[in-house]
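Review form for a predicted model. The reviewer records the input and the model, then writes brief findings.
Reviewer: anonymous (R2)
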Amino acid sequence: QMVWGAAHSAEDYGAQILTYHEVTGIELDGDQVSAVKATALKTGEQITINTKFVLNAAGPWAGKIAEMVGCHDVDVVAGRGIMIAMNHRLVNTVVNRCIYPTDGDILVPVHTVSIIGTTDVKADDPERLSIPRNEVQQMLDSGEALIPGFRTQRACHAWAGARPLVKDKRVAAGDTRHMSRGMSILDHAERDGLKGLITISGGKLTTYRLMAKNAVDEMERQTGNTHPCRTADEAVPGSKSGKNYLITHRLGEREHDRLDDPVICECELMTKSMFVDLMKDEKGDFQIDDLRRQLRIGMGPCQGGFCSMRAAGLTTSCQALDAKDATRLLRLFLKNRWIGLWPILFGNQVNQTALDNWIFHGLFDIDHLPDPGDTGPAIPDLSDTDAMEGRETVK
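Model under review:
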């Protein structure tokens, strides 16, 4: 909600947001930035964005962006961390160990689940983030220290992310846990003699608005503009003043329309109209994961086992997609869900995964649906031990 609130607020002020676009180059006019080159990953379209100033806020990829214009040695270190979602709210308030920051020191209730996190390990490539089994076990042990009996509960999904940390010479090169979380704004005009580019890195999500303010203030200084800053005076975009999240709020909302608007995802009480309306807003160029990030479809205990087929069916009836396109969306969604299931296959989660496997392979015969393109196997055959062993998890 916070991310989308910020994005929609930017659009209200005139921004154009291009998702699934990769920056491939930055053009210069002498010592001045003049344009950004990008590729639309879904269509292959090459686009050029004419500009005199670039704010490089690419996180762990910030160094890669800076190198496109010959600005080397932008020392941004990717600190990989994993988190695990448990299948229900084990706590209703945040539980944190009162110690120096360490791995697995916090348990947070989020919507219908609880999340334990996190590890902190240097990653060589933010494009490929593993979820090692030993770190999963470490998180479960840490959860047991926070709440006795934690290990007997069911883990339903794991994932990894990368923090963009500023290289800190006070600690070892690989010690991302103790690298500073302070923000850093690098002025490439001063350091490299290149006008029209600054790089911002470090910081934390809790300070993202201050980071944005400081970066834009520096851009204003360099470009000679003096627009007033509104950050301190405006509410966080997308926030609902005075309304805290309640686990029962969607159930309450379903009371008045339960007979007219069928529920598609029981775990998250997502209705047909919620899915269809958002799908129409995406104007046909979407993946089911795009809708998941806003509606939480497939993020509950069944991990898409009962709702993903229904969602795929809605894409054909409401977006006029054919069976091949719907199958491609379904298989890609299930493949992405599987990334976070493989590292935590034990206990009751094995039972759920086996049930999902039987549904998709036995009931729907997913591997023999119309040609899905190059999405690859949606769910590996759990009986194929050779294929299951040694799998690397990729974000």
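Findings: The radius of gyration is 23 Å.
Further findings: Residues 74 and 119 are 24 Å apart (CA to CA).
Recommendation: see findings above.
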